[in-house]
Amino acid sequence: MRPSPRRHVMRGTMVLVFAACASAPLFLSNYPLFVLSLAIVNTIAVLGVNLVMGHAGQISLGQAGFSAIGAYATALLVVNLDVSYWLAVPLGALLAAVSGYILGLPALRLGPLYVSMVTFGFGLIVVIIVQNWYELANGPNGMVVPSPVFFGRELFPREFHVAIVAVAAVLFLLARNIVDSKHGRAFIAIRESELAARGMGVNLAHYKTTAFALGAFAAGISGGLFAGLAQFVNPDAFVFPVSILYVTMGILGGINTLVGAAIGGAMLTALPELLRGAAEYKDFLTGFLLLLLLIFLPNGIVGFIRERFVPPPAKVDSSDGPRVVAHTVLPTTLQRRGRWENNALLKVENLGVSFGGLRALQNVSLALGSDEILSVIGPNGAGKTTLFNLISGLNRPDTGRIVLDGADITGTSAHSRARLGIARTFQNLDLFGEMSVLDNVRVGAHTRLRSSLLQAALRTGSERAEEARYRDVAMDLLQFVGLGPYANQKASSLAFGHQRLLEIARALASAPKLLLLDEPAAGLNSSELDFLMELIRRIREEFGISVLLIGHTMRLVMALSNRVIVLDHGVQLAEGPPAEIQKNPRVIEAYLGADDA
Amino acid sequence: MELLSQVLISGITLGSLYALVGLGFVVIYRATKVVNFAQGEMMMLGAMLALYFYSDLQFPYFLAFMLAVVLSGVFGAGLERFAYRPLLNAPVVTLILATVAVGQMIRAGVRILRGSEVSRFPSILSADPFLIGGVAVTPLSLSIIAIAILLVCVFMLFFRKTKLGKGMEATSENREAALLVGISVNQTFSLVWATSSGLAAAAGVLLAPLIIITPEMGSIGIKGFIGAILGGFNNIPGAIAGCFLLGIIENLGGVYIASSMKDVISFVVLVLVLTVKPQGIFGAAEGKRA
Q: Would you say residue B218 lies in a domain?
């Protein structure tokens, strides 16, 4: 990744801030230093909130519960089993991460309603358990934790502060690496549109549970450090208002940025200390602040600064509009992973599905050869998009089979179909609006990037090389569809026609065998349509990708298709070359109504 | 056997209160797709207001009850206007957080105004048990069950039969379409929040004699929500049945496992049910199109 000047400034500032924090014991007296230590410990927990809520878009109201697990596990290991503090903290954090992973499981199938409930309940349960755990954890009275020992010597709080800063710095670095990787983009893709993310091959189950595990890990570390800092843990430190406080800190700073965690964490730790109010006043103000932020400043301080003071990214190039670019890299970067063996790439047999009594599709069969363009047409409600949803795996058929390149894929999930070589666009445009145009395409290549979460977190050489390679592929694809100049802009800021093209580039990034285009021409003007037709032709001819296309625009369908299939009320009406279909009386009747009516 | 029937009675008593609160949750959820995390606090507020009118100002019980319910309803409508309406087009997660914030403000606000001291609601009806078929019941719990069931029935009729109730249903199905047929969405939402807050307050007043009253008592309110999820959110009778079931499960668990683990048990049951049957025990699966 080539850092821009702005990145350099950010990086420099972060280094300065960490250096200042680390050297604070030199010039701060005990109490302000303790507040600073506490702020950093809180910031680490908020970092977790920002990953789960800000990036992956999953609500979590039990962050303090994970901190409690980290803190109590550390305390129990150190006190009862004589484990070294420096081993106990990561062990506690791992335990928290495992709990987060398990807690994330219900989130797979359930909406924010249930996830908020389950995480809330979890936080509550953890506190109830430690409150009633007299034998080991001393119930509501809490446990005393000995001061951490470093190479045989007990650390003073002033020395321990430096350790806290070091841990925070490492965690921020790891988090930034993850956020900047394939995995971080998958998180944001899920937040922006689960449907499109699935279509791009993002395994929702994996990424949601991973997000919860990462968030819980950060909270667990924060809890372990808190135990070392306060040298005392009790249930009151992890009650529900603490979870709310973490969320408020995250939103105050800017929930979808990592820097926001530090800003929010520092401000909301320091402010109440300055005010010195009673707990109920603090709680009231936290609640009030959270409400105000949600209404007036949902993107927090960082978001506010970005909107007000940072100019939107400029176009890379001055030339306007889509244009065909000469390219050299594309055919090789889009080379398929092995050619298919069968002449029929896709075979659909007797496909049928009903939605609550409505038979959306009945007995539809089709075969698509390699390098072929097959169009599906039909009046509104004919079942065209339903057919696409079945082929791309977003819905399950009640009857029939789908065979891709000789393999039955009827039962496979949407994300694995993307991996097998099916890519699609969406009729109603389903881009990741808050991501950059370039990153949208990079999510499209999700299944082709192989680096693990650990490799991404450590930013290993191979991971960096892979990121760079696919960044170039994405850039090439943008050039190919004529969106090169817009690479750094927000996807939602693109004009409508450009958004359609971006969907195509994003789908191509997975190097598919089969491209499903759902009404790619809807809403385009005539010059945009010409460009699109040229593009589709080149996709077939130069990349050898077969295209299945839903079309309302007859000019496009008739000019490009090798064959056309007509659907009406979920039933296959006709199939044949375009010229034949145009004359078929049954097709004309379906579109225009019977003559004798 | 006697212990079991005793546990069942107290479970049903608790369940009827959960049903009142749960109904409020369902009403808000169906109209706005939001979980109201402040629902338990509205319940606490109802109990506090009733205590204030009845004990401090010496109003008659019935008047204190009505005042608590009506004032809570008005407060709920005010919350809708100033806290939730500005967020109408925000993501659901944002709205959920807003209710969390409001709940915390109510809780802390009551602590500021009243202190954290524990109060007891003077008993209206005798808590002396009498025997029905060998099982001891108190007039208090019987009247609570009766009033709660009555209220639940009244509100179900309201949703099913009146124009206003149907308007709420229509708004929840499709906001724009409701607007097009002349339903005022803002008015409907005010009404939804007012109704649901009133229901919560009623539950709070009824619950008050059974437990000690503290600013933290709202955490019981969340049980109504769990019960509703257990039963199934998209089916009001199912949700209410779920609330009764939860009351019974909790009491059984409290007696046969450990009373301090009541809350843990209810959440474990919730997670189990959600994992096995996400639409709830009595809920029908919704046909879903991607």
A: yes
Is B146 inside any structural domain? Answer: yes
State phi, psi for A488 to the nearest 5 degrees: -90, 0
CA distance B153 to chain A (A): 26
Do B100 and A61 count as a contact with CB atoms less than 8 A apart? yes
Which chain B residues touch A248 with a CB distance below 8 Å? 101
**B108–A111 CB contact, under 8 Å:** no
| Distant-in-sequence, close-in-space partners of A27: CB < 8 Å, separation ≥ 6 | none
CA distance A27 to A5: 32
Report whether A482 contacts A513 (CB < 8 A): no
By the CB < 8 Å criterion, does B100 face chain A?
Answer: yes
pLDDT over 70 percentage in chain A: 93
Average pLDDT over residues A117-130: 88
Q: What is the CATH number of the domain that holds B102?
A: 1.10.3470
User: Would you say residue A596 has pLDDT above 70?
Assistant: no
CB of B281 less than 8 A from some CB of A: no
- Name the closest residue on chain A to residue B32, using Cα atoms: A113
> What are the sequence ranges of the domains in chain A?
40-243, 369-592
* Least CB–CB distance from B101: residue in A117, A281, A291: A291
**Rounded-to-integer distance, Cα A202 and Cα A199, Å:** 7
Mean pLDDT throughout B74-101? 90
Q: What is the pLDDT of residues B15-62, one digit of tens each?
A: 888 888 888 888 888 777 788 889 899 999 999 999 999 888 888 988
**pLDDT tens readout for residues A290-346:** 999 999 998 899 989 888 888 777 666 544 444 444 444 455 555 544 444 456 788
Residue of B nearest to A277 (CA): B112
Contacts 24+ apart (CB under 8 A), A578-587: A578/A375, A581/A377, A582/A558
In sequence order, which residues have a C-beta less than 8 Å from that of residue B261 and are 6 or more positions away?
A128, A132, B253, B254
Task: State how far residue B142 is from chain A, nearest Cα, in angstroms.
Answer: 30
In angstroms, the separation between the Cα of residue B71 and the nearest Cα of chain A is 21
Q: Tell me if B286 is assigned to some domain.
A: no
Q: Is the ipTM of this complex over 0.85?
A: yes
The C-alpha atoms of residue B37 and residue A268 are separated, in whole angstroms, by 23
Domain enclosing residue B177, as ranges: 2-276
Q: In the predicted model, is pLDDT for residue B236 greater than 50?
A: yes
> Has residue B285 been placed in a domain?
no
- What is the domain count for chain B? 1
Q: Which positions ≥6 away from B50 have C-beta within 8 Å?
A: B64, B65, B67, B68, B121, B201, B204, B205, B208
pTM beyond 0.90, yes or no:
no
Give me the CATH code for the A369-592 domain, please.
3.40.50.300
